């Protein structure tokens, strides 16, 4: 096993030198960490914990934990994978969500003009490998009055955007 680094690392964040960034292999379905955290062999990308997800790499500080709701989205803003918790939160099965535009399931929580574009742009940037440490405030398409912070970061291969929803214990909007 040689320590070849994955293609994901082509673009480094502005604020993090390569030495500061820790990388993490996780399952795109159940978030289980890859055994040993080495780059999996090309033929061994399927998660051994759930047998469903593909192992993906992302920044360790953004990587989802098993209880997180998260989605993997490609550069066309189409959903490629989602965690069990995301399926529950968004009330959709992964099979039905794959290849659907993420905008059908997650919408910006702020109704300000341009916020939709910002969320989409952050995803497109991350899917292109630009690691800006982006986040956005979104809500599930089927729920009003809920705001969730979405952490957005590159993951792969193949290159995609990882969207991890924080505080999915439905934080209610306080009356303003
Ligand atoms: Zn898994």
- Second CATH tier, the architecture: 2-Layer Sandwich
Into how many domains do the coordinates divide? 1
Number of helices: 3
Instruction: Return the structural class.
Output: alpha+beta
Beta strand %:
25-35%
Q: What are the bound molecules?
A: zinc ion
What top-tier CATH class fits best?
A: Alpha Beta
Report the end-to-end length measured between terminal Cα atoms: 56 Å
Relevant CATH superfamily: PAS domain
User: What's the β-strand tally?
Assistant: 8
What overall form do the CA principal axes indicate? globular
Mean pLDDT: 83
Oligomer state equals single chain
The largest pleated sheet is described as: 8 strands, antiparallel
What this model shows, in words?
By secondary structure, the chain is α+β, with helices and mostly antiparallel strands. The protein has one domain: Beta-Lactamase. It is built from three helices and eight strands; from the N terminus they run ββββααβαβββ. Strands 1, 2, 3, 4, 5, 6, 7 and 8 form an eight-stranded antiparallel beta sheet that branches. The termini are far apart. The chain binds zinc ion. Zinc ion binds next to loops.
